[in-house]
Amino acid sequence: MTTTRWWLIRHAPVPNPDRLIYGRTDLPADIGDSDALAALAARLPPRAVWVTSHLRRTRQTAAALRLPGSDMALVERALAEQDFGRWEGLSHDGVAEHRPEEARRFWADPAREAPPGGESFAAVMGRVAGAVARLTAAYAGRDIVAVIHGGSIRAALALALDLTPQAALRLAVAPLSLSRIDHHGGGELGSDGGGSWSVTAMNALGTFSGSGR
Length: 213
What we know:
Elements: E1 3-10, H1 34-41, E2 49-52, H2 56-65, E3 74-75, H3 92-98, H4 100-108, H5 121-138, E4 143-148, H6 150-161, H7 165-168, E5 178-184, E6 196-204
Parallel strand pairs: 1-4, 2-3, 2-4
Antiparallel strand pairs: 1-5, 5-6
Helix pairs in contact: 3-4, 5-6
């Protein structure tokens, strides 16, 4: 049986004192915590396929881990954070105050409702599942280190755990944390998921702090 191991790392913290929504906004990460980066790097496999999203904070974090392959990471846009559309750069309090009808509609079903001009979390789960299936098929039997985002890691965990979008939103993913999902079976994942998944780690090493998405 072929086992493909996904090492899911959320990028380093993004300075965000005003707690603004920054899903697709290309903000830099704070990679100054050398002890946390070293502890994380020590847990990772030495010969892996590296993947980041196209956003700077994931590429910065991958480079700061300084492991072979991290400087030549595949860039996979389908593993990016949720797009919050016209809410990007606003706070949730600001949205509630100035766009109350949009906020009411969104919070009535936050898993399936999209902010104006953005995407729903259910849509995030769909695109992440497609990317995970494609990369699992391409690199079957390998270690894949994916330095990505809280939302896309939540979506990958939901795939492995067979969670609904509503249930998946209960998962919290800390900055600079390590989660791992393993796919057991052949390289081909059909529309039904193919093979089987196991979750061997979640939020290892990460420290929770208040930050926006």
